[in-house]
Amino acid sequence: MAMVTCQCQGEHRTPLDLVTSNLLPTSFTNIWTLFTVQVLDYIWLCNLELKASAYQFYQLIQCVTSLMRPAEVVNLYHELRRMSRLWRWMKRLKWAGYGHNQKDPLNPEPGTLANFCPACPQVGINILENWKDDMNQWVSECLCSGVENETLQFRFVFKCIFVADGNFKADHVRQKNSDTDIWLWDGGGMAPNQAEYHRFLQVAIE
Q1: How far is the C-alpha of 142 from the C-alpha of 137, rounded, in Å?
Q2: Please, what is the angle between helix 54-65 and helix 37-49, to 10°?
Q3: How many domains does the chain have?
C-alpha cells in the first residue's frame, strides 16, 4: 500500500511516528518497506510454538497474499528475517526496562536481557535469609523415640538445577562468515560474551 508521511516536525521524526503506529520500517534512513507489529509477533509465535522457520512462515504469507500465484508476491524474505531479529531484540529491551532508565540499549550490561526466573531459589525473593538453618533439611534415620545413637541425614529442600543444552541445531544455521554476523545482545542474555567465550575456550579442558 502507498503511504504519505507528514514531515511537519522534521524528517527525523518519521521512523518514530511509524513505530508509534505499530509499523516497523526495514530502514530508518531510506524508508520503503514496513512490517506491522502483528506480523512480527506472529512469526515469533509460529517459531516458538510450531517450530516454523522464517522461510516456512514467508511461504505461508505468500500463499495468504496470493494463493493461485504465490511466486508473484514481492520477495521480502531477507527483510523479514532481519526485522524479526530486530523486533525480538527490541522486545527484550522493553522487558528489561530499557527506555525507562538511562542505560545504553546498544551496550546492555551482562545478563540484563535475560528473563527473570521466579521459580529458582533466590534469597530475599522466595526463600528466607537464613535458609541454611531450616531444620526441614535434616531427617532422622531412626524414627523410633528413645534411641541414643540417632543420626541425622541431610536432604535437599532447597536445590538449584543447572541444565546445559548443546543446541546442535544452531550449528546448521550459523553464518558462513562469522565476521559479517551482527551480535545484537552479545552477553546480555543467557549466552556469554563472544570475546570472553573465545578466551575461555583457549584454556578450557575438553
Answers
A1: 16
A2: 130
A3: 1
Note the pLDDT of residue 144: 47
Residue 150: pLDDT band (50, 70, 90) is low
* Cell of residue 9, nine digits: 516536525
Structural domain contains residue 53 = yes
Beta strands in 31-182 (DSSP E): 34-36, 138-140, 152-154
Counting every residue, how long is the chain?
206
The residues with which 36 forms a beta bridge, in sequence order, are: 23
**5's grid cell:** 508521511
> For residue 17, what are the domain limits?
1-95
pLDDT in tens, 103-138: 888 888 888 888 877 777 888 888 888 888 877 766
* Sequence letter at residue 202: Q
Which residue(s) pair with 25 in the sheet? 34
Q: Considering the domain boundaries, does residue 57 fall inside one?
A: yes
The grid cell for 179 is 565476521
Is residue 37 in some structural domain?
Answer: yes
The answer to whether residue 52 is domain-embedded is: yes
**For residues 111, 157, 123 and 113, what is the CA-based torsion angle, rounded to 10 degrees?**
20
